[in-house]
């Protein structure tokens, strides 16, 4: 289990770094586009399409698992901390189960969306060429899969913790 947790942490860190590079690329393209537009009176062809269709999904979805792992997403902790320990445990299991179902469905349906884009060879015009968009669609289910993996690890941890607590 420790190996799985360490591997998961490495994967989440890689996702965070990929998202960071996408954000840095977006900033660089925007700055270069503004400079070129103001100094040379021309812009980077297709910069808006590149940012919108390629860099934005890469900036968001690979980091989802990391964001979930470090607990940046909002929680209901103030309300729940005032309840009994039994209520807190039941609530945590219920929320993790709902998360598993929701992110499982999101992973499944976004993977179907990727397959549809692959089968139809979805592409967008960038400058004078058509660039395939379907590879970027693969990033979306991977992002949700990383969150699902993190939720499953938390659920397994809570089940083990609860079973160990009941034995004592």
Description of the molecule:
It is a multi-pass membrane protein. The chain crosses the membrane at residues 21-40, 46-73, 93-114, 134-156. Residues 26-160 form the Tripartite ATP-independent periplasmic transporters DctQ component domain. This is TRAP transporter small permease. It comes from Oceanobacillus halophilus. This protein is mainly alpha-helical and 168 residues long. It has one domain (2-167). 79% of the residues lie in helices and 5% in strands. A two-stranded antiparallel ribbon has the order 1-2. Helix 1 runs antiparallel to helix 2, helix 1 (2-40) runs antiparallel to helix 7 (139-167) and helix 5 (85-119) runs antiparallel to helix 7. It is elongated. The mean pLDDT is 87.
Terminus-to-terminus distance: 22 Å
So how many helices?
7
The ordered H/E elements are HHHHHEEHH
Strand order across the biggest sheet? Answer: 1-2
The overall pLDDT average reads 87
The biggest beta sheet reads: 2 strands, antiparallel
Q: What's the structural domain tally?
A: 1
Broad structural category: mainly alpha
Q: What is the number of E strands?
A: 2
Indicate the low-confidence ranges by residue numbers: none
Helix content: over 70%
Beta percentage is: under 5%
Question: What is Rg?
Answer: 21 Å
Shape field: elongated
Protein name: TRAP transporter small permease
InterPro entries: DctQ, TRAP_DctQ
Membrane topology: Multi-pass membrane protein
GO cellular component, one term: plasma membrane
């Amino acid at each position: 289990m420790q190996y799985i947790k360490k591997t998961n942490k490495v994967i989440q860190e890689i996702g965070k770094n990929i998202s960071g590079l996408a954000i840095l690329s977006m900033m660089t393209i925007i700055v270069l586009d503004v400079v070129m537009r103001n100094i040379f009176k021309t812009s980077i062809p297709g910069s808006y399409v590149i940012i919108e269709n390629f860099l934005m999904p890469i900036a968001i979805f690979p980091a989802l698992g990391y964001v979930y792992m470090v607990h940046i997403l909002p929680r209901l902790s103030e309300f729940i901390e005032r309840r009994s320990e039994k209520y807190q445990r039941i609530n945590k299991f219920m929320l993790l189960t709902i998360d598993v179902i929701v992110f499982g469905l999101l992973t499944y349906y976004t993977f179907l969306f990727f397959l549809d884009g692959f089968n139809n060879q979805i592409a967008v015009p960038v400058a004078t060429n058509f660039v395939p968009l379907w590879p970027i669609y693969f990033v979306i289910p991977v992002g949700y899969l990383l969150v699902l993996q993190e939720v499953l690890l938390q659920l397994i941890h809570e089940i083990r913790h609860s079973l160990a607590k009941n034995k004592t």
